[in-house]
TrEMBL record:
GO terms for biological process: cell division; cell wall organization; peptidoglycan biosynthetic process; regulation of cell shape. One of its GO terms (molecular function) is ATP binding. Catalyzes the addition of meso-diaminopimelic acid to the nucleotide precursor UDP-N-acetylmuramoyl-L-alanyl-D-glutamate (UMAG) in the biosynthesis of bacterial cell-wall peptidoglycan. Its EC number is 6.3.2.13. Belongs to the MurCDEF family. MurE subfamily. This is UDP-N-acetylmuramoyl-L-alanyl-D-glutamate--2,6-diaminopimelate ligase. It comes from Terribacillus saccharophilus. Keywords: ATP-binding, Cell cycle, Cell division, Cell shape, Cell wall biogenesis/degradation, Cytoplasm, Ligase, Magnesium, Nucleotide-binding, Peptidoglycan synthesis. UDP-N-acetyl-alpha-D-muramoyl-L-alanyl-D-glutamate binds at residues 31, 150-152, 178, 186. A motif (Meso-diaminopimelate recognition motif) lies at residues 408-411. ATP binds at residues 109-115. Residues 24-95 form the Mur ligase N-terminal catalytic domain. Its cofactor is Mg(2+). It catalyses: UDP-N-acetyl-alpha-D-muramoyl-L-alanyl-D-glutamate + meso-2,6-diaminopimelate + ATP = UDP-N-acetyl-alpha-D-muramoyl-L-alanyl-gamma-D-glutamyl-meso-2,6-diaminopimelate + ADP + phosphate + H(+).
Length: 491
């Protein structure tokens, strides 16, 4: 693409020895990935400033540089006020606005986003549609998977991924949309067809100035659905009517709203819910009809996830029968209420719950099915929202018979300091502190008896532990299974 054509996506810019006839072969924000003919976009990030790599970019063959200040290089430099904000329109232009060529469903909320993406993937695939998924775990295009760095990748990765999806015939892309991504403009230019809201509880207050700021960031997904109505290209907002922010969220969008819920009246509802240790049954009521659903997914929170998926699928025109049959067949997502079965006489469940609300949801679900005691292993991440640490500990001791507090990605913080934050002010003494996560899991397995359930919370699908600047191999599921085997408690 000619540089002049690419720059037409920007309304204002200055040129430092620019030459518009240059051919641009690609865009990159990482100096290590520069290829000949690339436009290198300098991002002043939280850790490094891309401007310091300008000379390196030139030496590696960059054809031009987008920057916020003049640079001492011989290749053309285009100056803009904010390179991060310019990234989205440039990426959209370079990859020919791929989100316009397929249905895009964005899911936001504190909990349930990942489960929702895979529920919807199952429904659309059952309807013989090709799907793409982007979220916490990975990017998936049909059956091929790719690693991602953030829940919602930067605009360049996102638009490049969308282009790959379109080129491979994807009909529907389903993506998790984090509050960080919305606040930082990573999804600018993405043509969302459906926005889904799961719930809102405390998280990421290390980044957002307040809870209201956190909510505002989430609401941006709905305002970005647009203000016009197009019968040929309808858009919808799917909102959890039981959440206290539901009414405020409805004011953020001009598009038709589909509500779902259990407690309050909604378009899509679950009635006569029966929770069990092997799944859930409920009566699904929708404008398209009703059906008795028997699902392998456990817990009330999963009922909400299923209702949200029903709403998004119905707004997409998926047949009611296909939706219902898929809900009854799906088995869930790795690391989300995932059992570890190694022949032991007690339950072991690994879950990604890392907020007070999600931990409470998981523990109340376990409480409804456990025959013995609940033993919870949980920690809090370092360099993250400190205010939720005592809340996490409080939920653990409230719903567990024994709580074991341990490390969970301490990053640059001392794990002992994090643990002290967690237990500060706790009135209950039904807990122990075991800083080493492997030892904590082993201790939980050692004290578990017949009919008990051990919950290992916080990391879920993650296969690493971040200590300082190191990313160490660590998988709660493998550690638990090995402990069961080593102690001779399983097969």
């Amino acid at each position: 693409m000619k540089l002049a054509v690419l720059l037409s996506a920007l309304p204002f810019y200055e040129q430092q020895a620019a030459h518009k006839e240059i051919d641009i072969t690609g865009l990159t924000i990482d100096s290590r990935e520069i290829k000949s003919g690339n436009l290198f976009i300098c991002i002043d990030g939280a850790v490094v400033d891309g401007h310091t790599f300008a000379r390196q970019a030139e030496e590696q063959g960059a054809a031009a540089i987008l920057a916020e200040r003049p640079l001492d290089v011989s290749i053309p430099v285009i100056l803009v006020k904010d390179t991060l904000r310019a990234l989205a329109p440039l990426a959209n232009a370079f990859y020919a606005h791929p989100s316009k060529d397929m249905r895009v469903i964005g899911i936001t909320g504190t909990n349930g986003k990942t489960s929702m993406t895979y529920l919807l993937e199952s429904i659309f695939r059952a309807n013989e549609e090709a799907t793409g998924v982007i979220g916490t775990i990975q990017m998936k295009i049909k059956d091929e998977t790719f690693p991602v760095k953030n829940t919602t990748p930067d605009a360049l990765f996102l638009q490049k991924g969308f282009r790959k999806m379109v080129d491979q015939g994807v009909d529907t892309a389903i993506i998790e949309v984090s509050s960080h991504a919305l606040d930082m403009g990573r999804v600018h230019g993405t043509d969302f067809d459906i926005a889904v809201f799961t719930n809102l509880s405390q998280d990421h207050l290390d980044y957002h100035e307040s809870f209201e700021d956190y909510f505002h960031a989430k609401s941006l997904l709905f305002s970005q659905l647009g203000n016009t109505f197009d019968p040929e290209h309808p858009k919808y907002a799917v909102i959890n009517s039981d959440d206290r922010y539901a009414e405020a969220l409805t004011k953020s969008t001009a598009q038709p709203i589909c509500t779902y819920g259990i407690e309050k009246e909604a378009d899509i509802m679950a009635k006569d819910i029966q929770l069990a240790s092997n799944g859930t049954t409920f009566l699904l009521q929708t404008p398209k009809g009703e059906a008795r659903i028997t699902s392998k997914l456990m817990g009330k929170f999963n009922v909400y996830n299923m209702l949200a998926a029903v709403g998004a699928a119905m707004c997409s025109g998926i047949p009611f029968e296909t939706i219902c049959s898929t809900l009854q067949e799906t088995t869930g997502v790795a690391g989300r209420f995932e059992p570890v079965m190694a022949g032991q006489s007690f339950g072991v469940i690994v879950d990604y719950a890392h907020t007070p609300d999600s931990l409470e949801n998981v523990l109340t679900t376990i409480k409804s099915i456990v025959k013995g005691s609940i033993i919870t292993v949980v920690g809090c991440g370092g360099d993250r929202d400190k205010t939720k640490r005592p809340l996490m500990a409080g939920k653990a001791v409230q719903y567990s018979d024994t709580s074991i507090f341990t490390a969970d990605n301490p990053r640059s913080e001392d794990p002992q300091d994090i643990l002290e934050d967690m237990v500060r002010g706790l009135e209950s003494n039904q807990y122990v502190i075991v800083p080493d996560r492997t030892e904590a899991i082993q201790h939980a397995i050692e004290i578990a008896g017949d009919g008990d359930i051990v919950l290992i919370a916080g990391k879920g699908h993650e296969t690493y532990q971040i200590v300082g600047n190191q990313v160490l191999d660590f998988d709660d599921r493998l550690v638990a299974a090995e402990a069961i085997k080593r102690l001779g408690l399983g097969e």
